[in-house]
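The instructor's notes for this session suggest beginning with a concrete chain rather than abstract definitions. Hand out the sequence below and ask the class to guess, before any prediction is shown, which regions might be ordered.
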Amino acid sequence: MTTLTTTPDGTAARRPAPPSPPAAARRATRQGGTVLAVPALVWYLVFMVGPMLAIFVIAALRWPGMLQPVSFAGLDNVRTVFADPVFWDAVRNTAVQLAVALPVMILCAYMLGYYVAQRPPGHRVIRYLLFIPGLISTPAKAMVFYAALSPDGLANGALQGLGLGSLTDAWLASPSTALGCLIALDIWGGIGFTAVLFAARLGSVPDELGEAAQLDGAGHWRTMWAVHFPVIRDYVGVVTMLQFLWTLFGSAQHVLLLTQGGPGTSSTTLSFLVYQKAFIAADLGYSQTVGVVLFLAGLVGLLAIRRVFRQTY
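After discussion, reveal the predicted structure:
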């Protein structure tokens, strides 16, 4: 194969084109990339796909404890779970938790992130302050909430100081408020970290977009929702997915540290029910059947969020 080139005197001359890499070299390059990916693929199969398949296998077993004999249960665990009122209480509590915590967290975090992205005075300090809850360990956060919400804690003390002693309550021990306290902890623990993520993404949006909108008469509220939000819609969808998964699967630690699922089952969530049945009641088949339900709920939730935010990946 030859190519036409122009010489200094303006005449055209033919010169052979540089040879393309042989097919064997291209194939060796592709194979080298595959070899480099093998350790990551093995890790993913062993520690991600393997445990996920184990959940479905254990859900079909009758396994009353780690060192106890195992037998095949078939669909008996499914029938037991769906006939158990505790399971349905956990489903209701988890649905309420997601329906309240997720929208409040995402909306407030986005507005906080937008405010920080406008670089107000002291915006660097604000970023650090927002990130503080993410730096505190879960037991420490639970202790803070326990100190504030115990019968002689800060919340009741503040109400009595304001002359509202009739509103005091044993917040973590009351069936009507225990779940709400856990939801408040979820929001407080996640909103600052999420706001920092939004501020970082909004900081990459060209300033010209906001300036043009304000020149056209748009205020900050309209600029925030009509200009900046559509630009980072995909990123909002990603953050919403992450917070959905964290709230769905990570609520067990807050329940364990503060309420133990009580009073009664008023604060029992699906993730805590998995822990309770596996490590307290020693019913691994029941536990992993609930785990399968939790897995399917997470999958459906991710698909729904992806559709709402019109994700393209």
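Then share the key points. The radius of gyration is 28 Å. The mean pLDDT is 85.
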